[in-house]
Amino acid sequence: MFRILFLLLVTFNVCLAQTNRKHVVYFETDKYNVLETEQNRLLLFIQELERKEIKRVSIYGFCDDRGTDQYNLGLSQNRANAIKDVFSRLGIKQNLITNVDGKGEILLKIITSENVNIIRGLNRKVEIEIEYKSNKKGVVVKKWVKTTTRFLISKIAHKNLGSNKPSFFNN
C-alpha cells in the first residue's frame, strides 16, 4: 500500500511540477530560413501550448564552428529572429517573447573525426524555452496532496506502530 501511495504522489507531483517546455528547431549550414519539416514540427509544438498560461518565451540561436565569430553571432541571431517571426505570425503576443538571442557557435566535443558533420548539424539550431505561469490550482492541489499524504502515512504508522507514532506526525 505504501509503495502505491508513494508512486501515486511522485507521479502527481511530477505532473504539477512541469512549468517549462522546450523545443529545438534545426537549420541547414549557413541558412536561417526555417525548413518545411522544421516549420511543421514547430507548428505542432505551438499548437500544444496553453497560451493563456505562458509567462515568457525565450529563443536562443546557435551555429556550428565554421565561420568567424562575428559571422556566427549574426547567423545565430538571424535564426532566433526567424523563429520569433513564426511565433508572431501564429499569434503569440510580442510581450511574452522576452529573449531572442544569438549565442554564436557551440564548441564541438569531437570523439572521432567521423562524427564532426553530425555534431555540426546538431549545433545548427534554435532552442525555444516556454515558461508557464505558476498555477494557483496547482498550489491548492499540492496542499491537498500534502494533507492527504500526511493522513495516509499517519494511518499506516498508527496501524503499524500503534499509539507510539513518531513526533513528526504531530506537525
Summarize this structure as a short list of keywords or feature phrases.
171 residues; alpha+beta; four-stranded mixed beta sheet; 49% helix; disordered C terminus
In short:
This protein has 171 residues and is α+β, with helices and mostly antiparallel strands. It contains 5 helices and 4 strands. The chain is 49% helix and 20% strand.
What does this structure look like?
This protein has 171 residues and is α+β, with helices and mostly antiparallel strands. Helices cover 49% and strands 20% of the residues. The protein is built from five helices and four strands. The protein has helices at 2-17, 36-48, 69-89, 116-123, 136-161; strands spanning 20-26, 54-63, 97-105, 125-132. Helix 3 links the parallel strand 2 (54-63) and strand 3 (97-105). The longest helix is centred in the last third of the chain and has 26 residues, at 136-161. The model is unreliable at 138-145 and 165-171 (pLDDT under 50).
